[in-house]
Amino acid sequence: MNHIFKALNDETRRKIIEMLKAGPMNAGEIAEVFDISKPSISHHLDILKRADLITSEKKGQFIEYSLNTSIIEDLLSWILTLKKEK
């Protein structure tokens, strides 16, 4: 779970997750939104993949990235267990 929190600790990675809510995107489409280098975007995508927050699939010459909703559901379930019962 530490990988998840590390990944979410960066504003760029949180923005990428927000973008992927709309559907799969390739690295070029993601990079167009940011004013940082493509290698930096690849680094952020790698961190998100290692945290299992996103998945990737080769589509022709591109790799499409998608939100991994199951890990997000697991994270939310865990957070809800922290709520103090009355």
Automatic annotation (TrEMBL):
Residues annotated as domain HTH arsR-type: 1-86
Keyword Transcription regulation carried by entry: yes
Record-level Gene Ontology MF annotations: DNA binding; DNA-binding transcription factor activity
CDD domains: HTH_ARSR
Top-level taxonomic group: Bacteria
Pfam families according to UniProt: HTH_5
Keywords, ordered alphabetically: DNA-binding, Transcription, Transcription regulation
PANTHER family on file: TRANSCRIPTIONAL REGULATOR, ARSR FAMILY (PTHR33154), TRANSCRIPTIONAL REPRESSOR SDPR (PTHR33154:SF33)
Protein name per UniProt: Winged helix-turn-helix transcriptional regulator
